[in-house]
TrEMBL record:
Gene3D superfamilies referenced in this protein's UniProt entry, alphabetically: Glycoside hydrolase family 3 C-terminal domain (3.40.50.1700), Glycoside hydrolase, family 3, N-terminal domain (3.20.20.300), Immunoglobulins (2.60.40.10)
A GO MF term: hydrolase activity, hydrolyzing O-glycosyl compounds
Keyword set includes Protein biosynthesis: no
Residue ranges annotated for the Fibronectin type III-like domain, each copy included: 689-758
Name recorded for this polypeptide: Fibronectin type III-like domain-containing protein
Biological-process GO terms, alphabetical: polysaccharide catabolic process
Matching SUPFAM superfamilies: (Trans)glycosidases, Beta-D-glucan exohydrolase, C-terminal domain
Keywords: Glycoprotein, Glycosidase, Hydrolase, Secreted, Signal
Annotated family: Belongs to the glycosyl hydrolase 3 family.
Amino acid sequence: MTPSQKRALKVSSVSLCLCSILVLFACAKLSAWFTAVPLPKRVFPCDGDPSLSTFGFCNMSWGVEARVANLVKRLTLQEKVGFLGNHAGSVDRLGIPKYQWWSEALHGVSYIGGGTSFSSLVPGATSFPQVILTAASFNATLFETIGKVVSTEAREMHNVGLAGLTFWSPNVNIFRDPRWGRGQETPGEDPLLSSKYASGYVRGLQQSDDGNADRLKVAACCKHYTAYDIEDWKGVDRYHINTVVTQQDLEDTFQPPFKSCILDGNVACVMCSYNQVNGKPTCADPDFLAGIIRGKWKLNGYIASDCDSVYEFYNSQNYTKTLEEAAAKAILAGLDLNCGYVLVQHTEAAVRGGLLDESAIDKAISNNFATLMRLGFFDGDPRKQLYGKLGPDHVCTPSNQELAREAARQGIVLLKNNAGSLPLSSTTIKSLAVIGPNANVTTTMIGNYEGIPCKYVTPLQGLAAVVSTTYVAGCADKVAASADATVLVMGANQSIERENLDRVNLKLPGQQSLLVSEVANASKGPVILVIMSGGGMDVSFAKDNDKITSILWVGYPGEASGAAMADVIFGDHNLSGRLPMTWYPQSYADTVPMTNMTMRPDPAMGYPGRTYRFYTGPTLYSFEDGLSYSSFNHSLVQAPQVVSVPLEEGHVCRSSACESLEATGETCSNLTFDVHLNVKNVGNFSGSHTVFLFSSPPTVHRAPQKQLLGFEKVFLASQSEAQVQFKVDVCKDLSVVDELGHRKVALGMYVLHVGDLKHALSVQI
Ligand SMILES: *[C@@H]1O[C@H](CO)[C@@H](O)[C@H](O)[C@H]1NC(C)=O
Ligand SMILES: *[C@@H]1O[C@H](CO)[C@@H](O)[C@H](O)[C@H]1NC(C)=O
Ligand SMILES: *[C@@H]1O[C@H](CO)[C@@H](O)[C@H](O)[C@H]1NC(C)=O
Ligand SMILES: *[C@@H]1O[C@H](CO)[C@@H](O)[C@H](O)[C@H]1NC(C)=O
Ligand SMILES: *[C@@H]1O[C@H](CO)[C@@H](O)[C@H](O)[C@H]1NC(C)=O
Ligand SMILES: *[C@@H]1O[C@H](CO)[C@@H](O)[C@H](O)[C@H]1NC(C)=O
Ligand SMILES: *[C@@H]1O[C@H](CO)[C@@H](O)[C@H](O)[C@H]1NC(C)=O
Ligand SMILES: *[C@@H]1O[C@H](CO)[C@@H](O)[C@H](O)[C@H]1NC(C)=O
Ligand SMILES: *[C@@H]1O[C@H](CO)[C@@H](O)[C@H](O)[C@H]1NC(C)=O
Ligand SMILES: *[C@@H]1O[C@H](CO)[C@@H](O)[C@H](O)[C@H]1NC(C)=O
Ligand SMILES: *[C@@H]1O[C@H](CO)[C@@H](O)[C@H](O)[C@H]1NC(C)=O
């Protein structure tokens, strides 16, 4: 998606109406005027005109499939191809208006794409933290709750003609390399966390308020399928790269979030990426699209291309000689909707040239129409439907904005905390120095794929609401010397890491490290380093410097950043966020080529592997790291020592030694066990705590050194305890993937880990 397209719809917010009562009054009058003005005349399919109601596709007593078939058979070939692009065509004689498929809602309704925009009627929408920080909350309920609020605001905006119904979010690619510019958009590096985030957020967006599983509130889209996580690294860009991926890495790292989107989240769309995987563009690969997405996982919905993906595999990859061939290859592979123009402009010629049959187009547009049917697009005026009552007063409600603040609080990660540093006491700290380039930023806090937020609370504004502050963006020794405590808000922004730009440097940008060290030297009180960034930073200088008493990572915490930061810094909320990705040292970026997709280490080649599951080198901070103001103790209540896998007579492994069994079929039906733990808050602060259950499988099939089986977040008042239970599915969760990409139950000794607790488990026949 080109930056110019993205910016095109950005309109300035009404933040002008701030200070004076006079202006506020004018604003109030203005909004009253806007609500009184009749909406522009809009055309809704199957609405009003009695001549339309006789069309079968308008008949709401029919099933989706029958309605879609009725519509498709009424269209000419030329009309049909108009429905293969994101700027879908209109057919006046059937009362069908144009439709823009491209809207985005990564962490709030966004203006990117063209299907959605803000106006004086709806000047902003709730802007939640960038996804990487929400993932750090490790709270599956929160993922779904945010999705639900976003879809409510989206529906409201649809009612007033400002938003589409099809949102191309979430981004569920694995954050494989710390340099990735879009890592910020993802739930991190772990396949299980990404899967839970993906299915949770998708359910929140899609689930219909009337409980009808076939209806969609809005349609989500899981992207970018698959093995996509390079923007532009040292001149190697996403439009040209062929990612070389083993079947093993595909199955146990890159594919699981997409599988979960479909099987657990029932997502209505999957988007194929720009890159090639093992020599074929994903949008032209019948095995990946028709085979896996539609065949194996049975997507109920449509497959979309990333924007201009089809054009790029022709233009940048020379994968086809002509655009007609590109269109035919994409459709035959299973693509239904092209963000871009290639399919709309070249499919008709491809049919006439004999490159594909019209029936292939029928199939594609049927998937698109079925999705629109499920959204109520062909049921007339949305204001007379299920969500029709939602008006502009349902956007940016106090409770929605409170959820944005709550999400940021739940995600923020405390990485270092010397005794006596955090939380600051609002009674003893009388003056606070607030320093650094990100200390009073607005748009930086929101991250990319943004909307216009309801309002901004900058870090400075949040802290200043609690205590008297002195603010300096840059050099600041004197300020720090006289304050009771110092907060330095440093880190990155979209000029450092973004779509189309990967990092090469993992250190804080420019002179930031020097500034932090100088200020720390001059400060008399606690020095709190706050890192605002998507990806991890090599801050070894700060980790090792005793004068820097605390380090917080806040991701891009959204519209309520400053309020949430004040909540955690002053201890009104006790931190519970954990890192969803490994923080590597700069040496990693200096020695490991970003373009090498291999997950597993190769010591002979000096290749250290990737993510906590495989990486063998030194880390700054690890996946799951994060401190609390309290302490929590775990003890094991119940876990099996042996799990027996039943095998039928005559199975080869009954007579000979096997290292693993196929994790499918009879062997695996209903093979689960429970792990019960007791968790106690042994500290003086109430707070939430995430319990992580990991397993270290036997060392067969180059299995991960450690993998997450489950996580559960609990709230515990000081000195209280609770039981946490995990149901472990041996074949789904405990299994590993072999070298050929087949899921296997490894036989032998496993070690289950919860914090420092270790428990041995033997899996045998
Ligand atoms: C809708 O379909 C039903 C069942 O086929 C039919 O009885 C009814 O007349 C149709 N409605 C209209 C308005 O055509
Ligand atoms: C594609 O073809 C163009 C023109 O023939 C050539 O310049 C370019 O290097 C080719 N690109 C690739 C990726 O093969
Ligand atoms: C902080 O940023 C806000 C929003 O841009 C601005 O209104 C305010 O003047 C800034 N404060 C300082 C002290 O620069
Ligand atoms: C983004 O970060 C760069 C590097 O630190 C800095 O030069 C630039 O001013 C920042 N931009 C904004 C808008 O804060
Ligand atoms: C901080 O103080 C130490 C000890 O006085 C000194 O060695 C160091 O150079 C100072 N660092 C900076 C960045 O001023
Ligand atoms: C990636 O690194 C591994 C381990 O060193 C090596 O075997 C493999 O050939 C590399 N792959 C690519 C595509 O460079
Ligand atoms: C918590 O666990 C640690 C280590 O197992 C133990 O030393 C400590 O006594 C426990 N504290 C409480 C309050 O149970
Ligand atoms: C699975 O096993 C549990 C307990 O062993 C049992 O209650 C349940 O009915 C079984 N489910 C199926 C589908 O066999
Ligand atoms: C908790 O509070 C008690 C009583 O005020 C105090 O003695 C103890 O040191 C505190 N514990 C910690 C870990 O701060
Ligand atoms: C965090 O702990 C403090 C001190 O015990 C308490 O005042 C505050 O309510 C706690 N916050 C939460 C969310 O429990
Ligand atoms: C998880 O998030 C939900 C939704 O915001 C919240 O109500 C709940 O308290 C959170 N759970 C924990 C254990 O913090």
